[in-house]
Design a protein that fits this description.
Strand order of the largest sheet: 2-3-1-4-5
Bound molecules: thymidine-5'-diphosphate
Number of helices: 9
CATH architecture: 3-Layer(aba) Sandwich
Radius of gyration: 17 Å
Number of domains: 1
Strand content: 5-15%
Order of helices and strands: HEHEHHEHHEHHEH
Structural class: alpha/beta
CATH topology: Rossmann fold
Helix content: 40-55%
Shape: globular
CATH class: Alpha Beta
Amino acid sequence: MKEKGKCMQTPEKKSQELGKFIVFEGIGGSGKGTQIILAKDLLIKNGFKTVYTREPGGIEPAEEIRKLIFMLKNEKLINAEGQMALFFGARKLWVEGVVKPNVDNGINVLTDRCHTSTGAYQGYAEGGNQKQILAISDIVLGNYKPDAVILLDISKETFINRRGNDINGDPFDKESPEYFDRLIAGYREMAKTGWGGLNWYVVNGESGVEEVSESVTKVLEEIFEKKLKRL
Ligand code: TYD
């Protein structure tokens, strides 16, 4: 297991096993929200202490930045670099307030999105500089890099079908079909090349909830090196 934040831990905490930090990724409508709750329940049932969180947000002040980003994006007042700055600002608060305390205390953190979303959205879809995104990630995440990224992969057509008319105020979901082409291709490329030096797992998100959940469970068995009792 990777050692995270070693220098920041008390001697007593050093002997404790660190929690795993696992990201669920994918475009809107990929089913992350449902799958992350099923995964959390499954891990808890199997005796692993686990919490789930989301980005941007997951902690009060970062939720405020989330609202600001959505407003600025809706009003077309912010470009890729501005978005990067705000997403990473929110992320810094979240890493300190949610990720570190849990991971250091042996609690697994499952998150709906992380800096990997910045790579896909602000990098591939919005044209931001990937080298800069990776450099800021090093500053903001430091030793707390995810142990694994589970990408729920769906097609643009499935996204459009699932979204329907329900856009929920998310300005990124209102983008053009070409934006989603860049986003989906970007995510696939990130998984293929191991973007960020991370362990990527791709799960086909096209089928029903139970089938996708079984595929996610198999990935979790690989990550935790343990056969898991099903829900
Ligand atoms: P959310 O409602 O959580 O979307 P979803 O249900 O699709 O996960 O809204 C988060 C939106 O912010 C989402 O459309 C993707 C976008 N986003 C970025 O563009 N960059 C980022 O770094 C993150 C974390 C999210």
